[in-house]
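We recall that each integer encodes one residue's backbone shape. We quote one record:
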Amino acid sequence: MSEGRKGFFGRLVEGLTKTRDNIVSGIDSIFSGFSAIDDDFYEEIEETLIMGDIGIQTTMAIVEDLRQKVKEQHIKEPGQCKEVLIESMKNQMNLGENAYEFEHRTSVVLVIGVNGVGKTTSIGKLAGQLKSRGKRVVLAAADTFRAAAIEQLTEWANRAGVEIIAQQEGSDPAAVIYDAVAAAKARHADVLICDTAGRLHNKKNLMEELKKINRIIDKEYPDVYRETLVVLDGTTGQNAMVQARQFMEVAQITGIILTKLDGTAKGGIAVAIQSELGIPVKYVGIGETIDDLQKFDADSFINALFQVKTE
């Protein structure tokens, strides 16, 4: 593990403290408190995982897998189940290779999310990281209806040292995208990141807006690689899952950015989202600095949650 990964793993371990207190301490007390593996033992594990926002479906799948492995491996002691449980959780989150294809091709990344989830901040951090790796990045301020969204994104663009295409507040988001595509092509940008709206209370309008944006990209930039990320606030637990499902109705979501994991006891939602929706959590945010948005790795997440030491 590189120094950078080690540093992030340490911050992840620290950031997941509340979630760990919520889930792992409960699990540990079950392992130490039961003398036999019986239905009550499994029920207690189920309840602890559900209370930790792992989600009902995911919990059922994890516990079913645990039951099967306990039987197959002839495990008799509750304490011996911990490693099996950790493996079961990792398996539930395994969606194969988490692709970051957009980083290696000329691409347009649409980022959507409701107010207050950390969308603009995540875009700024992502832009800064791509720029630091030698990529030419352009931002499009197409969330034109939220007060101060353009100013906030402009501030992040300046901080990251990337170009931003913006119009007046209240202008047509599709017109901003049209200008941004033209600018990205003219400047031979590697990645165009578009800050788009996420007004779920008016899904029909949002759907029409996204359709219009997508039509412009299809027409003006037909060969570009496409990515659509939804930003969710980790502190909202099951509400984040509900939002993800709603966004899936209006857009073809290819990945999730899960923010604010450092301030929540509901970090288990990362397991539920990836397992139940089949959409990869691609990035997690665990702090305020530009390096605190990192690529998500299910194994590292579960290892950090259970404080499993890895080489």
Summary: The mean pLDDT is 87. The CA atoms of residues 165 and 179 lie 7 Å apart. The radius of gyration is 21 Å. The chain has two domains: 3-93, 101-297.
